[in-house]
Every structure is written in C-alpha cells, then in structure tokens.
Amino acid sequence: MQPDAPRPAPQSKPAAAPKVQPAAARCVDSAIELAAGQSVAVRMYGRKKTGQTSPVVVHFHGGAFVSGDLDNGCTVGGLLEGAGAVVVSVAYPLTPFPQPVDTGYEVLKWVHRNRTKLGGQGALVYLAGEEAGGNLAAAVALMARDQSHPPLAGQILLSPMLDPCVGTASQRQVTGDAVDCKWVEGWRNFLRCPRDAEHPYAVPASAHRLAGLPPTLILVGDTDPMHDEALAYAARLRAAGLMVTQHVFAKAEKWPEPLLETGPHECPCAGAAQEEFRRFFDATRCQAPS
Nearest-CA neighbor of 139 among 179, 108, 180? Predict the structure, then answer.
C-alpha cells in the first residue's frame, strides 16, 4: 500500500480589510448657544446608550478654511460614530483666524459641560478633524492645554493642514509646478497677516511648546499632500514625550478628498480608519485626563 502523497501546505489568505461599521443612528442638526448670545450650528451623530459610556468627539470638517459645511463632515463623523463615539460636528465660521479657533474652543467647553448627557457617566472628550479641520482640532487642543480646561482624552488628526508654506515634498508631488492651489488659497484667506503665521493657534505645527497635549492619533495616505507635514508634527509630539499613534494608508487614493465628499460614496481605507479610531478610544480610555 502506497503511502499518502504529501499534501501541499495550506496557503494563508491575506487579511481582509476591515469593514466599515455603519452608523447606528441618523444624525441630528441642532444649534449650540455660546457666549455673548452667539450660536453655532452642529450636527450630532449617535446618542447616549443606556448603561454604557461612549467617547464624545468634537469634530471639525475640512475645506481648506474657505469652503465646506456639515455635509462635508459626514464621512468622518459617521466613521467616528461607527467606532462607538457620540460626535458633535461643528459648522465653524469660514472666516480668518482667530474666529474659527475661538468658536471651536467654545463648543469644546459646551461639550465638556454636557458630556454626561451626551456620552454617559464618565464620558471622555476628544477632538477630531480632517484637512483644515485637523488644524483647528490641533489648535483647540493647544488652547485647552493653555487654559487648563477642558481636559481632553485625545486628538484625532486626519490629513491635517499644518504647514502654511505648502512646500513639502508630498505637497509638491501633488501640485507639481503650480504656483497656486486650493491649500495656498486657503492659508492666504485664513492668515490675515504674516504675524498670524507665527501664532501657535493659527499654525499649531509652529508651536514651540508641545508638552501637555493629549494623546494623538494621526492618519494620512501614502500619496497624501499633507503626508509630510502630518508626520513631521507626529515626530515633534513624540520628541516632546507625548503618546502618538500614526498610520500611513497605502491605498488611500486621493486622500484627503474622499474624506470631504458628500452623499453616498466609497472612501478608500474607511474601514481601516474606523478600526484605528476604535483602537485609539480603547487605548486612551484607561488614561482619563485629570
């Protein structure tokens, strides 16, 4: 009797890309009353879950400082909700510095005051933003640190606009020899004068002191125009002794544009980004801010 022929070793299958967890509840548009009788429109994603505690995220949409609205924030807002968060997405004013940052900080204080109503007992508060919104999230984090309030559990920056020089290699690779682009135009409209570019709340990457900031998650694509400036900021945060998680997606075609699109569409690496959100929430949950 012939022995059985050797069988080929089983081939390992490549790991499947994480699937997007759909948002569990429809978003709700509302308005928040701020100081001096002012109000700002917001869009709420998710809701408080009975007997559970959810992270609460203040989110800023992209648009190069000159465009964009709550609809442009629906992709990231929905991904954050699918990762378990209650999200307050902000329709910040498309005006020069410092009004968008000041508005963001006022919303953050409102969210902190209402965190138990929004996310449950012991809910932690985060900041998040993509493209220009990533800049605002980083700036508001600096303000919160300098004011020693409100305490933050973390900041999530997706393809953040951090370099007003718009001269990094990753930027040039996308814009080529063009002397103007939407990001140049955006910075030109956001910064009123050269001195604004020296202010850390306008350009967080220029801040001389980064100590005291919360844990940070930075996500970029490998062909992302904001790739270099985002990773440079991550390196500076890490050098300051801070907790930093960064991930570069290899197939995030045309990022950050798909993050800003409205209506039904397929966003490259959406499932992987949502998984990074979920891991970040888990990693920072035990590091409650004081």
Answer: 108
The predicted-structure confidence for 71-118, as pLDDT tens digits, reads as follows 999 999 999 999 999 999 999 999 999 999 999 999 999 999 999 999
DSSP 229: H
Between residues 201 and 184, the one the model is more confident about:
201
Which amino acid, residue 132? A
Distance (Å, whole) CA 73 – CA 53: 24
C-alpha 77/C-alpha 71 separation (Å) is: 10
d(CA 77, CA 278): 13
Q: Is 28 helix (H, G, I), strand (E, B) or coil?
A: strand
- Give the separation between CA 156 and CA 276, rounded to whole angstroms: 10
Q: Quick one: average pLDDT of 10-32?
A: 65
Residue 168 DSSP class = S
pLDDT in tens, 140-167: 999 999 999 999 999 999 999 998 987 6
Contact 113/151 with Cβ under 8 angstroms?
A: no
Token pair recorded at residue 154? 């973390």
Q: Is the dihedral of CA 6, 7, 10, 11 positive or negative?
A: positive
- Pairing verdict, β 28-33 and 154-158: unpaired
- Both tokens of 175, joined, read 């814009």
